[in-house]
Write a structure and sequence with these properties.
2 domains, Rossmann fold, alpha/beta, globular, 9 strands, 328 residues
Length: 328
């Protein structure tokens, strides 16, 4: 099967075939090796990517900016509050104009029930590929980096036990896009995936059904539990991370009664002792230290969070290299 990448939008990995994702990962590993050996990779010489941010960013912005520089191109950082978007300019007009100026548009818009729709409207009108840097539903760049990290640590992902676990946090109300992307992606690589959360923090029904279908079609498994100890027990990979209760609470309040009732959902050394011998702790960062996780865990021997964060660079480069410059 031949696959054309140039101009292909990346809004959700669910819309990419497994073969296409495998190619993304192959390119990511190759670019990582070349970066370690200080080999130049001017694949996108003089090309431009526009980075539109409706929210704050550390890893995503810098992995994209550093990545396009290392590929020979240039990034324009665009704070949308300083664009005409703030005065009501349409997604159509923004997409048509920016795609006539450069070679890709990347956008982060996590506003609930708005972000994904906005990205798809950009994609409808853009002549250049649209790259999702996180929306209200998906975070494909993070999902790729997470999968790359698991492949590095375990080589063969078949039957690897991965637990995506809700955790208590008060820093800000986090979108569901990271756990949702992981829940959809990991079963496609034959992993045994457990999604654990207190009642009230459900992911959308359509996402759960798709995750189960992905597992059935690819030799993995997918289950849900409301018992965090069960999720940690014998797990090879644990990913304890907060997400907001979008189903039951559409307010802007970060702390509410439901959140406070689940303060005990925290990654501790005691819970990590239930995991498999060579288990790893992952987090997309920033972690809400002392709420989501004890310092002794995130800074301890099981933690691979900095490897995971570094892989954001290499996977972002692969996405840009293929969608901006790959075979049409």
């Amino acid at each position: 099967m031949q696959t054309g990448f140039r101009g292909k939008h990346l809004i959700s990995l669910q819309e990419w075939t497994k073969e296409e994702i495998d190619t993304l990962l192959d390119v990511s590993f190759d670019l990582k090796k070349k970066f370690a050996m200080r080999e130049r990779t001017p694949i996108l010489q003089d090309e431009t990517v526009f980075l539109m941010f409706f929210e704050q960013s550390t890893r995503t912005r810098n992995s994209m900016e550093a990545g396009i520089t290392q590929l020979g191109g240039h990034a324009h950082f665009l704070d949308t509050s300083n664009m005409q978007i703030a005065h009501g300019e349409s997604a159509k007009d923004t997409a048509v104009i920016l795609s006539s100026f450069g070679h890709a548009i990347a956008c982060r818009n996590c506003f609930w029930e708005q972000g994904n729709k906005y990205l798809r409207e950009l994609a409808r009108w853009s002549r250049a590929p649209i790259i999702n840097m996180q929306c209200d539903l998906y975070h494909p760049l993070q999902g790729l980096a997470d999968l790359m990290t698991i492949q590095e640590k375990f080589r063969n992902t078949e039957r690897v036990k991965v637990s995506i676990i809700w955790a208590y946090a008060t820093s800000h109300k986090k979108p569901i896009s990271v756990p949702l992307s992981q829940a959809l992606l990991f079963p496609r690589y034959a992993m045994d995936v457990t999604l654990a959360y207190p009642k009230g923090y459900e992911l959308p029904d359509w996402a759960i059904e798709q995750a189960k279908q992905n597992a059935e079609e690819n030799g993995g498994s997918f289950r849900i539990t409301h018992d965090q100890e069960e999720a940690y027990r014998n797990a090879d990979v644990v990913i304890p991370k907060n997400w907001g209760s979008w189903v039951t609470n559409q307010s802007d309040a970060v702390v509410d009664d439901l959140l406070e009732a689940n303060r005990h959902w925290k990654c501790t050394e005691e819970l990590m002792s239930l995991t498999s011998k060579n288990s790893i702790y992952m987090h997309a960062l920033p972690a809400d230290r002392q709420n989501e996780v004890d310092d002794s865990v995130i800074d301890g021997p099981h933690s691979v969070v900095y490897d995971e964060a570094e892989n954001r660079l290499h996977t972002s480069k692969a996405v840009m290299a293929l969608t901006m410059g790959g075979r049409a």
